[in-house]
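thread from #wetlab-drylab

HS: before we spend reagent money on co-crystallization trials with nicotinamide-adenine-dinucleotide, can we at least see a predicted complex? here's what I'd submit
DV: go for it
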Amino acid sequence: DRLSAATLPRLAQSVTTPAYDRQSVTPGIVHLGVGAFHRAHQAVFIDDCLNRGETRWGIVAASLRSPDTRDAIEPQDNLYTFCLRDGESERMRVIGSILETIVAPAEPERLLERMADPRVLIVTLTVTEKGYLTNLASRSLLRDHPDIVHDLENQERPRSIFGFILAATRRRRKEGSRPLTLLSCDNLPANGHVLQKLLLEFAELTDPELASFIRTNIACPCSMVDRIVPATTDADREAISTALGLSDAWPVVAEPYFRFVIEDRFPHGRPALEKSGVEFVGNVEPYEHMKLRILNGSHSAIAAIGQIAGLATVADAWDEKPVRDFIDAYWRETERTLDPAVDGAEFADGLRERFANPSLQHKTMQIASDASQKVPLRILGPLRELLAEKAESRAVIFAVALWIRSCADKNEKGQPITILDPAFKEWDAPDQLAMTPDAVVDRFLTFERTFGSDLPRNETFVLALKAAYRDIREQGALAAIERFLKS
Ligand code: NAD
C-alpha cells in the first residue's frame, strides 16, 4: 500500500507523524521550486510550527518545471518521509506541511490564485541559480531569455518567478490584500537583494508604477540555508518504503546538521521558526559568505575532482588524503575573506565530519550540475577579493582549473563525463582533450557569463590558472594536487 492520510495510522511508532489535524491547516506560504531541499528543510520547520498549533502557515508548493514531485506525492495526500541519516543511524518522520502541489506550466492560473490568496503572506523560493534568469557576472536580468520574453507578452500566464510574482502582486493590490514577503533560500550571495533587484528590473520593463510599489512595499529578506540534501535515489526509495511498511514514491534524505539564518524583515508576519532553532538576525551576509565560500566553494572543488577522477560521492573523494589536504589549503585561503563576526575555521571543522558521512551518498555529479552558474558565486567571488588584496589564492585558482578540466568529454579513466549544466551547454564548449592546455584556458576565459570581463584581464590569475590546468592535464588531478601541496 501507499503512504497516505488513510494509511498513516498503520506506521510503526518509531516513525513520527503529524500531530495536528491537517484539515484545519490553512495556506500561509507559497513555495516555488518544490525540490528535495525544500522538502527536507523549510517544509520540516513548518511541520514543527503546525505541530505547535500555528495552523495558518500551511504550504502550497509549486514546481515551475517538472511535474515529477507532484506526480509522486499528490497520490499520497502530499505526505512524504523525511529521513535523517548519520552513519548507521536513521530517523524517519512523515511531513504533513505541504497542503497542495501545483505544476505551474500545467496550471499557471491555479498558482496565481494561491499567490493572490489574502491568507498567503510569504512566497519562498528554491529554484536553483538558473531560476533567477540572470547573468551572474553582471547580476542583470537575461532580458532575451525566452521565459522573460514570454512573460512580458503573456502577463496573466507567466512562466518565470518574476512573471508569477508580478502578476500576483498586481492582483493583491487590486483586491487590497497585504503585499507578499519574498524569501529566497537559494545559494546566491545576498539572495534577497538579488531577487529584489531582478524583480524590479523585470517590473520596470512592463509597469514602472508597479515597480515603484514593489520597491517600497515588498520585503525581500536575505537568508542562509545550510543542510546537505542529496537527490533521492531508487535505493533510498526502496529502503525507506521497506522500513515504513508502506510505499513512499519520493522520500527525502538529509544529514542531521542544519543551519537556517534569516534576516528578520517580515512586515506582515511570519511563523515562529526560531522555536525550531532557526536564527533571525539583522544581517545575514557574514553567515551567507561563510556558507557559500567555505561549504559550497569546497563542495564544487570536490565535485570537480570527483568528475575528473571518477569518484562518485563526496565521501569517496573525502577518503583521499590529497583531497582533504587540498580542501584544507582552500579553506585557509577563503577564510581570510570572511567577516570577523563568524568563525570560518570552526565551521570548516564541522564540515570535515559532514563530508565524511558515508550514508548520505551525496553524488559529485549532482553537485557539479549547473557549475557554470555556481563557480562565479562561490569560487570567483572570494577569488576577486583575494586578488584585489594580493593575498594567497593559489588553491582557489587551482579549484577553477579543476572545474575547467571537469568539463572535458572524458574523465581520467576514459569514461564520459556527464555534465548537467544547460547554460554551459549553450556555450560552444571546446573538446578540451584535443587542444593544448593553454588554448583550453584561453577559450574558457571567453565564457563571459562565468568569468566576467575583469578576470580574463588579470595576469596573475591567468598565469596561475594556466599552470594549474596544465599540471592537472599532464599528471592527473590527484597527482597534480599532491605536487601543488608540496610546492
Ligand atoms: P532539486 O533538483 O531537487 O529541485 C530543484 C527545483 O528547482 C525544482 O523544483 C525545479 O523545478 C526548480 N527549477 C530548476 N530550474 C528552474 C528554473 N529555471 N526556473 C524555475 N525553477 C527551476 O534541487 P534541490 O536539492 O531542491 O535544490 C534547489 C536549490 O536549493 C539549490 O539550487 C540551492 O540553491 C538550494 N539549496 C540546496 C541544498 C541541498 O543540499 N540540496 C542546500 C542548500 C541550498
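DV: The longest strand covers residues 80-86.
HS: ok that's useful, forwarding to the group
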